[in-house]
């Protein structure tokens, strides 16, 4: 998959293409429907498929300080899109100047002049341009002038866990924040992932016999609610079953919220300085402060046993 940052990176001889535009945070199952359809139609038409997205998130530029928790960083989204068969990913730097671009100018500068769109695939609520004034109806109207067509994909509705709500990043963020990893995975189509570099912590886990990787998470990451979770610690593509702790470590009066993962039954791991991923499968229990360290150790042993059971019963496909 080709990756471009900014309109100037698009090859001068780029021909017609099928395009879809959006933030696509998380590349959840609703996004997969739209992107998958774009890939399918591009192959039918014999042209490349292009996904257009933005960095930073538009809300951070329009309303500074309102950046939503991110379900996936850009490199992870690119991996997921490549797996869907996307031919090219265009990341547009979202600046104050860019935010003031009128919908008509956005269409001309991006879709017409640079990507030579033959077909544009979007969801029904797609908005674009200054103050989000552009919509699917306007996009379709301009298609008659600039020789492209528009296809709208209705997002499927989730099951009972979401109360019949459509797939959405907003709902996924809420479920992650509540610690509902099963509900989040239902929308994402996979466990929620948190990434970052392993840094040195207080090393209490090592002292207690449960050495953990203390993950310095990427900015704006959507972090699950405080508690203990079953999941995986992914290091260089190797997914190791893990017991994961999120919180301030109240047993030792901690104040900093951390994400720590214990790779179950793995000995002698040296992960400091490595970029790792933590996949959250299931919530096990809330974060507690015990009467003694001995009680904590009993609880931790029970946590590891429960995590092992949950992971063993899960089919990653």
Tell me what you see in this structure.
By secondary structure, the protein is of the alpha/beta class. It contains ten helices and twelve strands. The chain has helices at 29-45, 58-62, 74-83, 96-99, 103-112, 136-146, 169-178, 181-188, 204-208, 293-312; strands at residues 2-5, 17-21, 49-55, 88-93, 117-122, 149-152, 192-199, 213-217, 227-235, 238-247, 258-263, 275-285. A six-stranded parallel sheet has the order 1-4-3-2-5-6, with helices on both faces. The chain is elongated and about 75 Å long. The two termini are 24 Å apart. The mean pLDDT is 91.
Short description:
The protein contains ten helices and twelve strands. With 317 residues, it is α/β, with parallel strands linked by helices.
List the helices and strands and how they pair.
Blueprint: E1 2-5, E2 17-21, H1 29-45, E3 49-55, H2 58-62, H3 74-83, E4 88-93, H4 96-99, H5 103-112, E5 117-122, H6 136-146, E6 149-152, H7 169-178, H8 181-188, E7 192-199, H9 204-208, E8 213-217, E9 227-235, E10 238-247, E11 258-263, E12 275-285, H10 293-312
Parallel strand pairs: 1-4, 2-3, 2-5, 3-4, 5-6
Antiparallel strand pairs: 7-8, 7-12, 8-11, 9-10, 9-12, 10-11
Helix pairs in contact: 5-6, 7-8
Which terms summarize this structure?
alpha/beta; six-stranded parallel sheet; 317 residues
Q: Please outline the major beta sheet.
A: 6 strands, parallel
> What is the number of E strands?
12
Mean pLDDT: 91
Rg measurement, Å: 22 Å
Q: Structural class of the secondary elements?
A: alpha/beta
Order of helices and strands: EEHEHHEHHEHEHHEHEEEEEH
For the termini, the CA-CA separation is: 24 Å
Helix content: 25-40%
Count every helix, treating DSSP H or I runs of 4 or more residues as helices. Answer: 10
Poorly predicted runs of 5 or more residues: none
List the strand order in the largest sheet. 1-4-3-2-5-6
